Amino acid sequence: MPTKPLPSDLEIARAAKLLPIEEVAARAGIDARFVEPYGRDVAKVQLEVIDELAERPAAKYVVITALTPTPLGEGKTTTAVGLAQGLEKLGKRSMLALRQPSLGPTFGVKGGAAGGGYSQVVPMERLNLHLTGDFHAITAAHDLLAAMIDNHLHHGNDLGIDPWSVSWRRVVDINDRALRNVIVGLGAKLDGPPRQTGFDITAASEVGVILALATDLIDLRARLGRIVIGYTFDGRPVTAEDLKAAGAMAVIMKEAIKPNMMQTTENSPALIHAGPFGNIATGNSSVIADRVGSKTSEYLLTEAGFGADMGAERFFNVKCRVSGLRPDAAVLVTTVRALKTHSGRYKVVAGKPLPEPMLAENADDVLAGADNLRKHIDIVRSFGVQPVVAINVFPTDFASEHEVIRQIAEQAGARCALTTHVVDGGDGAKELARVLVEACHDETDFRFTYDDGDTLEEKIRKVATGVYGADGIELSPQARKELAHFEELRYGHLPVVIAKTHLSISHDPLLRGAPTGWTLPVREVRLAAGAGYVYAICGEMRTMPGLGKHPAAERIDLDENGEVVGLF
Amino acid sequence: MPTKPLPSDLEIARAAKLLPIEEVAARAGIDARFVEPYGRDVAKVQLEVIDELAERPAAKYVVITALTPTPLGEGKTTTAVGLAQGLEKLGKRSMLALRQPSLGPTFGVKGGAAGGGYSQVVPMERLNLHLTGDFHAITAAHDLLAAMIDNHLHHGNDLGIDPWSVSWRRVVDINDRALRNVIVGLGAKLDGPPRQTGFDITAASEVGVILALATDLIDLRARLGRIVIGYTFDGRPVTAEDLKAAGAMAVIMKEAIKPNMMQTTENSPALIHAGPFGNIATGNSSVIADRVGSKTSEYLLTEAGFGADMGAERFFNVKCRVSGLRPDAAVLVTTVRALKTHSGRYKVVAGKPLPEPMLAENADDVLAGADNLRKHIDIVRSFGVQPVVAINVFPTDFASEHEVIRQIAEQAGARCALTTHVVDGGDGAKELARVLVEACHDETDFRFTYDDGDTLEEKIRKVATGVYGADGIELSPQARKELAHFEELRYGHLPVVIAKTHLSISHDPLLRGAPTGWTLPVREVRLAAGAGYVYAICGEMRTMPGLGKHPAAERIDLDENGEVVGLF
């Protein structure tokens, strides 16, 4: 492919002409009285706007997902941003609903998360650092509950909490490996009692998932109260309500519940809200942002973490179940490099460049990885939703390789379009936008993978077989016991989240393409009663990243003008 | 005293008619282009305004301090707020510079900290919860450094840091007794190495003191770099700069450096910024807020923690040394109940009502506590600053008791005025405002207690004898060794902070009034190289509060309209 020299993300972001954020909101039909500016270029949107706009027609609702990604990511965020801009170029009013990036990892390996090239959310410093403080509120609310648990144990343990059963850890929004396993409560009697516990990163907090799934402030308050932190000595669940912590937690979260409005490099509106982990949690932005977005656009685009087996499955089965909103289409972001990786012929490592031979023109490699894309198209179809394959073009691609992807997609009955939004902004995504508009006019027949009334075990099995294509599931004795316990405690009606690797449709990161003839092993099952789901652990789940030997933090600084350098 | 029924603080705050925050700023002469709204009713002020207004005359600069407080506090914040409003009633332009309250203690015993009655900073929910996130930024910057220390040890310890020497702990803005002493780094090799450490509350963070003492962003960056986290095996100090953490920390603090503008119940402007502990740190709001305030008012009022021996001493000797600003007067907030307590005839306990007999009319009790007030007047005088005694009137006071205080003050050569700002707002503080204006026209002869060139030991001795009235100091062998070490490392030029009880002018909380014939025992000495001082520990210093058996958090909640209840 011909390439044109592209300025750095930072240069493009700084060169972007931002509109006053009130004007961005006004264009989306949000009256200034619902807009609370938070610094220049960011605003919170008050939830009262939802009632105000209740009579408006709902937007077409589109989830941006992907095939199984390489460790480098396939550009879902840039595609979502580019597509929103592309829709605007066609005269359609778009709204983005994206997750807020976690602050901690910004100082680890990953740098910023704001899209890229001419398809970014700006200002990137605001997005990647504190934004309006929602993650800090999650941290404070989460850790207040933790403090109240240990304080309750200290002051005589009236509730009879079994300290060994306490599963509520603490959180910080920093990559801090040393906090994964700690003993707290050492010192003197007034500083205790001692107890082994640990810290996760804030994105793994159940409070953050509650923010993502709450439908309004009353629902947020109720969900916080339902959080189960452990059990009494006689086996009864202990909730945040029992500890009288939920009210204070809701007060801490009072502002965080309002979604944050930003804009793209081409001034398309974006709602940035919540950012729960994609592995153990839902990996989607908030229900509330979607409720606002649905009434303030013609096309609401929301991104779901990892591949369609991960974020999109949870988006459909968990988030749409809670919100009542029904999707019209799913965009499957696809890259030449991902399909080449799924051929099984190359090894791609995060933070390292692609192997040189992968950059040669090789349509056969792409074809060899086709099963993965076909399977993701089928996954989207299993929900009765229209798939649109977006080929996210990289400068190292060849037209012959794109053509193979197009054939795979069309043979599988999916629409397909190239997109060059990173280099060309919204203009580069116009074709994709046209195809998406077309897809959104098709009939949909949305359906969940399982019913509320299915047992938890049935739900896990239906996702494993009906979505992933496993032959079945295998429960460890512990998992079996936990499932029985949760059913007995009347949590059986909850939906499920399967915590597994995102690097394969199976639980095994080494199984490429569309694995068949395998069984999903469930090691343990955990309860997120406040968020409102049960999650099955099928592999090592990392909930607190570490820093590398030379983390990004070492390069991040202010220059002599006080501008941020090294963040991107 | 006759009393009139007073609505609750919350009712008064909610009934207050707030002006648009841009208008509050405009009245102070701050152009809209320097004002960044953060939600309704709060804004950050850009530091560029300082250069813009460089030609303006400096305001009269007034510190609000107190005699030795009872555990209930004597109303310094309400007096500062009331006095600002009183000055406005006289047609003077006032500016308040107050500390941001810490979020954690709001959920402990103390409830909100926003003044009271008709002298409050509003909206109190914003002030007492996240405000604009500055404390969260302090927490994140502080804990990023902590993570980078343990990460450095994990990745081979190239700098040769002696793990046992690491004094940099972590912080959270939650009262969490169980975090005072912890072991981190347990688990597997990738989660370590194990190390004993602990957490303080965010208000105790050196990063927060740096925010309070930095003169601009460049200075903030430099101070962060100078933080000493411990020593190498061969005894060299290890700084945040050595760990390449200071740049990232400065980036995290980039917005926090801008002071926050709010208003009082009568629409006087207030800059709320930084909130370092009053025991081990400076207990004043920021130099930057004072730099802004000095150019945007005729009277800049700033509050200093605890009595004049504590916050005011540090305000004069540390903060004014750094800022170059020179005070014109000090308001000594005095109450009948405090002088009665200093008689030694009653025992006052935090969180409990006053002993019944203390409420009877008894001018003799007041007189018996006079020594404490006289000593604080002397302390203020020792800096060459005009003292103004403000009698903060309570409904349980008697006129005869006020008269005694007035006589004590005037005999000691101080001006004096009653103030009823809690009940009457600015009108109640007009007399005090008049007296203050008069005092500010007197000649001042400001002087420090010690010179930069004095040794650290001499500095401690000069504060102990020249300010507190001790006979001398007694250094423990450890303290002696540490002082020698800091001198050797060339930190001898730094000012000192004496970390001692605030309940006595001495180190012993049981010594009431104006103790004589005592020696200040210095147990150990610590270095805050980034903040830029050395602090001498003279007693148990609590840097992480706990929660009571029934903390305020249990009563704090949202009502059915989503309004906060129980916070005040």
From TrEMBL, chains A, B:
<comment type="similarity">
    <text>Belongs to the formate--tetrahydrofolate ligase family.</text>
</comment>
<feature type="binding site">
    <location>
        <begin position="70"/>
        <end position="77"/>
    </location>
    <ligand>
        <name>ATP</name>
    </ligand>
</feature>
<dbReference type="InterPro" id="IPR000559">
    <property type="entry name" value="Formate_THF_ligase"/>
</dbReference>
<dbReference type="GO" id="GO:0004329">
    <property type="term" value="F:formate-tetrahydrofolate ligase activity"/>
</dbReference>
<dbReference type="InterPro" id="IPR020628">
    <property type="entry name" value="Formate_THF_ligase_CS"/>
</dbReference>
<keyword id="KW-0547">Nucleotide-binding</keyword>
<comment type="pathway">
    <text>One-carbon metabolism; tetrahydrofolate interconversion.</text>
</comment>
<keyword id="KW-0067">ATP-binding</keyword>
<dbReference type="InterPro" id="IPR027417">
    <property type="entry name" value="P-loop_NTPase"/>
</dbReference>
<keyword id="KW-0554">One-carbon metabolism</keyword>
<keyword id="KW-0436">Ligase</keyword>
<protein>
    <recommendedName>
        <fullName>Formate--tetrahydrofolate ligase</fullName>
        <ecNumber>6.3.4.3</ecNumber>
    </recommendedName>
</protein>
<dbReference type="Pfam" id="PF01268">
    <property type="entry name" value="FTHFS"/>
</dbReference>
